[in-house]
Design goal:
Blueprint: H1 3-18, H2 21-33, H3 42-47, H4 51-66, H5 80-89, H6 92-115, H7 121-131, H8 150-157, H9 176-188
Length: about 190
């Protein structure tokens, strides 16, 4: 790893170590857990909410199991720290290959973190340097709203209001099957 990346990651570690633990945790959660733009779940950036994401998760979990890495039921296999744990015990050629597979996501995360002036961008830059070549382009990633302001989070989680009454009935009058059953019941009486 080039010296500039070691120094930048070292500065991040020093900054975290000098500060209060709760402050570091609050910043981490606000950065990585509240919004989708900097999510550490890699497939979030690759597949978004599509069905393909689930199959990719299963395939990655199978890859871990085949290598003898046990993943608990409450961990998603695409979580970057877990992927890096797997890479740390994988044979060097496989580790380098997997780093190259995820390099485009890591690069996009690094850009988003740098835009936020986050020292965690140094970690992504170091991973990119270790990966070397990328197998995919950042253009292959799904578009994610990068606004993680409280207002944007509220909009993302806001649900449409549920209203009742005949003016809100579906265009075709409701459930066709139930209507047919009621019609047959009315004919029999």
């Amino acid at each position: 790893l080039p010296a500039k990346h070691r120094a930048a990651v070292g500065a991040l570690i020093d900054a975290i170590g000098r500060g209060a633990l709760l402050d570091a945790q609050e910043k981490y959660v606000a950065l990585f857990d509240l919004g989708r733009g900097c999510s550490l779940h890699l497939f979030e950036h690759v597949y978004g909410d599509s069905r393909e994401r689930g199959q990719a998760m299963v395939a990655l979990a199978d890859r871990y199991r085949a290598a003898g890495l046990a993943v608990s039921a409450n961990e998603l296999p695409d979580y970057l720290p877990l992927v890096l744990e797997y890479i740390s015990v994988a044979p060097p050629a496989e580790a380098k290959g997997l780093l190259a597979e995820i390099a485009h996501v890591v690069e996009a995360l690094g850009e988003r973190l740098a835009k936020r002036e986050s020292p965690y961008a140094a970690v992504m830059a170091a991973l990119g340097a270790l990966a070397g070549k990328r197998l995919h382009s950042t253009a292959d990633l799904v578009t994610i709203d990068d606004d993680d302001s409280p207002e944007a989070l509220d909009r993302a989680w806001e649900e449409a209001a549920v209203t009742f009454g005949p003016e809100n009935a579906p265009q075709n009058g409701g459930c066709d099957r139930a209507a047919a059953i009621v019609s047959r019941m009315n004919q029999g009486s």
